[in-house]
Amino acid sequence: MSASPLVRLQRDIDAIAHRAAPPAPLTAVAVAQASGLAPDEWQRTVLESDARQLILLCARQSGKSTISAVLATHAALYQAPSLVLCLSPSQRQSTELFRKCLDIYRALGEPVAAIVQTRLELELANGSRLVALPSGEAKIRGFSGVDLLLCDEASRIPEALYQSARPMLSISGGRLVLLSTPFGKRGFFHHEWTEGGASWERTKITAHDCPRISADWLVQERATIGQWWFSQEYLCSFEEAEDQLFHDHDIDAAFSDTIAPLWAPEGLQP
Ligand SMILES: Nc1ncnc2c1ncn2[C@@H]1O[C@H](COP(=O)(O)OP(=O)(O)OP(=O)(O)O)[C@@H](O)[C@H]1O
Ligand SMILES: [Mg+2]
């Protein structure tokens, strides 16, 4: 549905006003501080990074979504016009990340006027857009020229969803940030972390590295949830499935490149 003439007029007025008096640009660290957040040292490093691909392998509640939301809001406000997308395993989680961006935008005093502001999208007078994506592969197609793609809870995003999102960055050369706790030795998140090569900048933050998580609380938590969950959620360890019959290294050791297979699909006969 197209916008009414009055809404379009207001958009034009906001865009002209923005061009006449854009806000003084801030760095991402300054955006965090101006929104009331004192970034931890690792968060500051992330905000200052200019890497095109970032992986944040971080413990629960360490602040990975918060700092990614700062990156997103900074890009929308001060690297305009930019298209910023939040992707997660579910629409609810994407919306949560988007809400963190809105909180930061409001805490800054909305330095660029909003032209459209809904539960899922913020469009600014400087031409930037920030969008919380749904989780269906078919539903996310259609976006192009993406400047920043944030994949929250990346270890739980289905492979097909990730693979269909990546091409959105192909023309724009936009940034990609994967942020997550681990979820087993499988999937693209584990692959990019362990074998993704030098094109990724990797940050690992366990609960012990987070100043807001107390040592006493971690001792209690380990006793309550057990070592397996504790290692995954708080120590950033890619654990084998709890009910797995064979260890991954035993399965890997069972394969060989030197023995010809007894049978193979047609066309692949040795
Ligand atoms: N530098 C900081 N200073 C103070 N509070 C912070 C900082 N970074 C994050 N927080 C707070 O810590 C809490 C957890 O942050 P956040 O939701 O970003 O963590 P997370 O790693 O994404 O957690 P989860 O794994 O549960 O999704 C929030 O209340 C957030 O406001
Ligand atoms: Mg989070």
How would you describe the overall organization of this protein?
Helices cover 40% and strands 14% of the residues. The mean pLDDT is 90. β4 (121-124) and β5 form a beta hairpin. It has helices at residues 5-20, 28-34, 41-48, 64-78, 91-107, 137-140, 159-165, 187-195, 215-225, 227-234, 248-253; strands at residues 53-58, 83-87, 114-117, 121-124, 129-132, 148-152, 175-180, 201-205. The protein is of the alpha/beta class and 270 residues long. α2 crosses α4 (64-78), α4 (64-78) crosses α5 and α9 (215-225) crosses α10. It contains eleven helices and eight strands. The chain has a domain at 21-206: Rossmann fold, CATH 3.40.50.300. It starts with a helix and ends in a 17-residue tail after the last helix. The protein has an eight-stranded mixed β-sheet with strand order 3-4-5-2-6-7-1-8, with helices on both faces. Magnesium ion binds at residues 64-65, 152.
Give a quick precis of the structure:
The chain is built from eleven helices and eight strands.
Comma- or semicolon-separated keywords:
binds adenosine-5'-triphosphate, 270 residues, alpha/beta, binds magnesium ion, 8 strands, Rossmann fold
Strand order of the largest sheet: 3-4-5-2-6-7-1-8
Strand content: 5-15%
Give the SSE order as H and E letters. Answer: HHHEHEHEEEHEHEHEHHH
**Distinct bound molecules:** adenosine-5'-triphosphate, magnesium ion
- Going by helix content, strand content and strand pairing, the class is alpha/beta
Q: In the CATH hierarchy, what is the superfamily of the domain at 21-206?
A: P-loop containing nucleotide triphosphate hydrolases
Mean pLDDT: 90
- Quick one: biggest sheet? 8 strands, mixed
Q: Residue share in helices?
A: 40-55%
- Poorly predicted runs: none
Can you count the beta strands? 8
Instruction: Give the CA-based shape.
Output: globular
The total count of helices amounts to: 11
CATH class of the domain at 21-206: Alpha Beta
- Rg value: 22 Å
**CATH fold name of the domain at 21-206, please?**
Rossmann fold
